């Protein structure tokens, strides 16, 4: 497993590993879903190499990398004369994966015609090269992946519902890195080792104090973003211990985030202590209110049941801005 750096020890990740082992035992189509950068191809490889086809080809293909006019030819091949540039017969990826596994990443990029052909192949293992008159057979396991919501695409006609059912005989959903508690640091160390072995960088360890923000950061690019960060910083570092700065967006959120702790009341009279609690409540409530209204003061006033002018005074009191057409998210 570690040969693909599919690693982690969080509860969410260990659950995935256990399910991968089950998927590997059953030779049926699998649909892997998850955000970009979560390691869908690594999971597909793990399923293949733990299964009965481990000594046969694993053929990955990104369906989004081909023009619409070439997807069918790439998957199913073509015969001589099928189109202008088809000077010879050319086998497709289905043929290359015969006996093994074909991994279809970004399966949502398949054209409607290619979806029909793939559905037919999943039904009876038969396919027809572009321009051919006869069908051929191949023994291939299909593992597909998508970071697009296929359920929603079926409702808009972008993806065939019957194909989704065929692909999702078994399914695996990979958790984002932000839900894998503690795995970011573990993976960062492994990426550092890989960088040192591959590129000979002089960094040999991470400064864990400077990486304390790992568990608070959302990692929108998931494991791929973490890998890119470690490689980039390690390659330009002139020190043995790698220190990583907190992202500016996270630092800004921390600065703006209201303090939810109760104020210290020692030495304060009742009226002063009550005023402190009310002020903290108002600030926290206003932040949440403006977040719900996406910065629109008029909408926030309606949600709060207050007149706009009165709400404006409260916002000004706490130095909280409002915007009618803002995409900014307010700290909670």
State the order of secondary-structure elements, H for helix, E for strand: HEHEHHEHEEEHHEHEHEHHHH
**In order across it, which strands form the biggest sheet?**
2-3-6-1-7
Q: Report the portion of residues in β strands.
A: 5-15%
Q: Helical region count?
A: 13
> Into which percent range does the helicity of residues fall?
40-55%
Find the CATH topology of the largest domain.
Answer: Rossmann fold
Q: How many β-strands, per DSSP?
A: 9
For the record, the CATH architecture of the largest domain stands as 3-Layer(aba) Sandwich
CATH C-level class of the largest domain is Alpha Beta
Report how far the terminal alpha carbons are from each other.
Answer: 39 Å
User: Which ranges are low-confidence, i.e. pLDDT below 50, for 5 or more consecutive residues?
Assistant: 323-332
Number of domains: 3
Structural class: alpha/beta
Whole-angstrom Rg: 27 Å
CATH H-level homologous superfamily name of the largest domain: P-loop containing nucleotide triphosphate hydrolases
Major sheet characteristics: 5 strands, parallel
Could you tell me the mean pLDDT? 83
State the shape: extended
Descriptive account of the structure:
This protein is of the alpha/beta class. The protein folds into three domains: 2-175, 3-Layer(aba) Sandwich (Rossmann fold); 180-255, Helicase, Ruva Protein, domain 3; 258-317, no CATH class. It has 13 helices and nine strands. The chain has helices at residues 11-25, 40-50, 71-76, 93-96, 112-124, 150-156, 161-167, 183-199, 222-236, 248-256, 270-292, 297-304, 308-317, and strands at residues 30-33, 58-62, 101-105, 126-127, 136-137, 141-146, 170-173, 205-206, 241-242. Helix 5 crosses helix 7. The protein starts with 10 loop residues before the first helix and ends in a 15-residue tail after the last helix. This is AAA family ATPase. It comes from Zoogloea oleivorans.
């Amino acid at each position: 497993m570690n040969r693909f750096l599919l690693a982690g020890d969080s509860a969410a990740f260990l659950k995935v590993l256990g399910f991968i082992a089950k998927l590997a035992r059953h030779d049926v189509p699998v649909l892997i879903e998850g955000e970009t950068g979560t390691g869908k191809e690594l999971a597909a490889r793990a399923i293949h190499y733990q299964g009965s086809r481990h000594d046969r080809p694993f053929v990955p293909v990104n369906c989004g990398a081909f023009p619409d006019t070439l997807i069918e030819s790439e998957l199913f091949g073509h015969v001589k004369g099928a189109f202008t540039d088809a000077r010879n017969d050319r086998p497709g990826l289905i043929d290359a994966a015969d006996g093994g596994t074909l991994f279809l990443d970004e399966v949502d990029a398949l054209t409607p015609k290619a979806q029909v052909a793939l559905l037919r192949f999943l039904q009876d293992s038969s396919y027809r090269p572009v321009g051919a008159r006869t069908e051929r057979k191949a023994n291939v396991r299909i593992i597909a992946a998508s970071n697009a919501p296929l359920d929603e695409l079926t409702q808009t006609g972008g993806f065939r519902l019957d194909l989704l059912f065929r692909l999702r005989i078994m399914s695996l959903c990979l958790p984002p890195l932000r839900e894998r508690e503690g795995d970011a640091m573990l993976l960062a160390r492994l990426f550092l080792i890989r960088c040192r072995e591959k590129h000979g960088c002089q960094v040999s360890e991470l400064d864990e104090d400077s990486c304390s923000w790992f568990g608070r950061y959302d990692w929108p690019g998931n494991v791929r973003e973490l890998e890119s960060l470690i490689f980039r910083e390690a390659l330009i570092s002139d020190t043995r211990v790698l220190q990583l700065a907190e992202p500016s967006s996270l630092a800004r959120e921390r600065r703006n985030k209201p303090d939810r702790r109760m104020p210290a009341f020692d030495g304060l009279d009742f009226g002063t202590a009550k005023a402190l609690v009310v002020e903290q409540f108002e600030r926290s409530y206003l932040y949440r209110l403006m977040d719900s209204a996406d910065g629109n003061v008029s909408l926030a006033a309606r949600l709060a049941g207050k007149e706009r002018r009165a709400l404006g005074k409260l916002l000004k009191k706490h130095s909280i801005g409002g915007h009618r057409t803002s995409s900014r998210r307010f700290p909670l």
